[in-house]
Amino acid sequence: MNKCYLSAFVIASLALLTSCAKPLDDPNILYSEQHKDPIVEHETTTKVDRSKFRYKQTFYVPIYSEIYTDKDNRKVLLAATLSVRNTTLKKSLYINKIDYYGTDGTFLKSYVKHPVEIPAMGTLNYIVEKEEDKGGSGANFIIEVEGLDDTVAPVIEAVMIASYSNKAFAFTTEGTPVVH
After folding, report:
1. Region class of 18: left (phi > 0), else alpha (psi between -120 and 50), else beta
2. How far is 33 from 31, CA to CA, in rounded Å?
3. DSSP the chain
């Protein structure tokens, strides 16, 4: 009987320990150098004096979770990589918001809990997996950035890629400033 209890304890312990681990199949964790979520890794918990910030901009970034091909309008799911690049040589860029919306404008997910600091010449890449099809053909991100002055204006792009049958697709989109 003791072996039965011991086996049950070991199985329950393993289940508990593995359920707490980050998913190893998340490409954002799997392909990062530290094997950590890149957004969480760049989040800053230190106080930043925002009173000195003179640049703040919101960007709309189109993301295509799916496209239609051929005369039969077959749907092809796409993987997307969102890329936010700080183009300055000496100043950090801060991301306050990365929100994901579906084709119909429905809010789907917020990716940022704390401000994300992108160091000078740094890049934040984030992958939206091909299997994530909630966004649809008109999915988009709303990204809010800020910094010391307008020299920290970022380059924001998305790269979509997929293969279907004997076809391959790859294209990019650019972030567009939102007028309030």
Report:
1. alpha
2. 7
3. -HHHHHHHHHHHHHHHHHHHSPPTT-HHHHTSTTSS-HHHHHB--S---GGG--EEEEEEEE--SEEEETTTTEEEE-EEEEEEE---SS--EEEEEEEEE-TTS-EEEE--SS-EEE-TT-EEEEEE-TT--SS-TT-EEEEEEEESSGGGPPEEEEEEEEEETTEEEEEEEE-EEPP-
Q: Which residue has the tokens 């940022």?
A: 112
The two tokens of residue 57 are 């901009």
pLDDT tens for 128-155 read: 877 777 888 889 999 999 999 989 889 9
Is residue 90 a contact partner of residue 120, using CB atoms and an 8 Å limit?
yes
Count the residues in the chain: 180
pLDDT category at 25 given cuts 50, 70, 90 is low
Query: Taking the model in full, what pTM does it have?
Result: 0.75
